[in-house]
Amino acid sequence: MKWVIEKNLVCPSTGVCFALLSGLKNLRLVLFYQGEYFLRAGSTLKTSEFGYVVNGMLRNIKVIHFLPFNQSLWQTLEEKLDCPGNKVALLNECDKKRKCVLKLCPYGAI
After folding, report:
1. 61 forms bridges with which residues in the sheet?
2. Is CATH 3.40.830.10 what the domain over 2-82 is classified as, yes or no?
3. What pLDDT digit, counting tens, does each position of 61-82 carry?
């Protein structure tokens, strides 16, 4: 099945990422995942017998959970997750870097 990533969020204290996926017939899901690859808005995600394919490339993604999309859940995640990249499209420096468990900033901050 093919999914399009609409939005994404990161939890810097746990390293869990969240992606809002859109599929057939406007089916929308919230994906909880971890991995070395960050799902960006506009990317495509496909499931295969070998794993997860993002934009045509097999990627190492560990799926933690799926939930049906709920606007209030997504809004709560946006409000509570303390990552500056979740709110700012272009981020050069991050003042939360000391508390972040991610080795590489998915938003490109130093």
Report:
1. 35
2. no
3. 999 999 999 999 999 999 999 8
